[in-house]
Amino acid sequence: MSTSSPETIYSIGTSSRGPEEFLKVLKAYRIERVVDVRRFPTSRYEHFKRENLKDLLESEGIEYIYMGRELGGYRRGGYEAYMEREEFKEAIGLLETLGREKTTAFLCSERLPWRCHRRFIGMALARRGWEVIHIIEEGRVWLPSR
Prior knowledge:
Helix 2 (50-59) links the parallel strand 2 and strand 3. The protein starts with 7 loop residues before the first strand and ends with a strand. The protein has helices spanning 19-28, 50-59, 68-71, 79-82, 86-101, 118-127, and strands spanning 8-13, 33-36, 63-66, 104-108, 131-137, 140-142. It is built from 6 helices and 6 strands; from the N terminus they run E-H-E-H-E-H-H-H-E-H-E-E. It has a 6-stranded mixed β-sheet, sandwiched between helices. The protein has one domain (8-142): Cobalt-precorrin-4 Transmethylase, domain 1 (3-Layer(aba) Sandwich). It is an alpha/beta fold.
C-alpha cells in the first residue's frame, strides 16, 4: 500500500465488515487515526457502535475521534447546502489539522463513498488541495476526478 504524504487523507465505510477485516484494512493503509463522521454513531453490528468502535480501535493503537455533530450527514436542506455554513468550514479545517498530524481516515457506515456524505467531505478537502483516497477494501480504492 502507499504511504501517505502530509496532504493525503483517507475515507472508509464500516459496511458489514467484521472487526478483523476492518482492522486489517486500516492497517494495510497505515491508518493511525479514525474520525467518525456518522451523524448517528450506532450500528446493527455491535463492534461499530460508537463506544465499541472506540475501544476496538484504541486496543490496536488507532486513535478515535467523533465529529458526527460537525460533519455528519442528514442535514436539513441537504448536505451541499450545509457545506456553505461556517460550522462546516470550521470542521473541515479541524479535519485538515487532524490529517496533517497523523495518517487519518474519516469514517461513515456506507462502503461506497458515492452513496453517502463522505463524497462531499472529500470534495471539500480536494478543493483545498488534499489528495482524498476513498478505501473500498484492501487493495481497492476510489479516486474521484477533480
